[in-house]
């Protein structure tokens, strides 16, 4: 399948999931995340879920990170430059839903991509080699290109791996992908 066909397939599969299934699988993904050797790190980047796209609910992982007193940043997307700013999440961080339906910080302390030890990456599909397909705008590929080489990239998916996805040179492979059933290591 082409990337476009895979995007369409997984957007349809997500749309078919009930809210209860979303909650159950998201909680299972967060519990599976606890198996990873990442909890001794300091700086984490996590996306806030877009409810209309039925993304993995990251609130559960966010609660784990906050419970472990980690420095957590959330993205703010600029659709003109196709770049993201990474804002430190604090108690007083005001979150608003953008015109694109993305929950984002209004303002705050920006953190450099070089700071991150772990990045939780949104995706539509991934394969058994760690290649992933996002929404096609390249926000995360541009961001990951600025991160340190040792930064861990972790995908979150409601679905299991495809056998193979044809990837492009700009795509950044994952180190791990977490589903409700298992943790994939690449």
How would you describe what is shown here?
The protein is α/β, with parallel strands linked by helices. The protein has a single domain, classed as Rossmann fold (3-Layer(aba) Sandwich). The chain is built from 4 helices and 11 strands, in the order ααβαβββββββαβββ. It has helices at 3-16, 19-33, 59-67, 139-146; strands at residues 43-45, 71-78, 83-88, 95-97, 103-105, 118-121, 125-126, 132-133, 152-156, 176-178, 183-185. The strands form 3 sheets. A 7-stranded mixed sheet has the order 3-2-1-6-9-10-11, with helices on both faces.
Write the layout of secondary structure elements.
Blueprint: H1 3-16, H2 19-33, E1 43-45, H3 59-67, E2 71-78, E3 83-88, E4 95-97, E5 103-105, E6 118-121, E7 125-126, E8 132-133, H4 139-146, E9 152-156, E10 176-178, E11 183-185
Parallel strand pairs: 1-2, 1-6, 6-9, 9-10
Antiparallel strand pairs: 2-3, 4-5, 7-8, 10-11
Structural class by helix and strand composition: alpha/beta
Q: Which runs of at least 5 residues are low in confidence (pLDDT < 50)?
A: none
CATH architecture heading? 3-Layer(aba) Sandwich
CATH topology descriptor:
Rossmann fold
- Number of alpha- plus pi-helical segments: 4
Largest sheet: 7 strands, mixed
User: Whole-number radius of gyration?
Assistant: 15 Å
Give the number of domains.
Answer: 1
Helix content: 10-25%
Distance between the ends:
22 Å
CATH superfamily: NagB/RpiA/CoA transferase-like
Listing every helix as H and every strand as E from the N terminus to the C terminus, the arrangement reads HHEHEEEEEEEHEEE
Shape: globular
Arithmetic mean of pLDDT: 94
The count of strands amounts to 11
Name of the CATH class = Alpha Beta
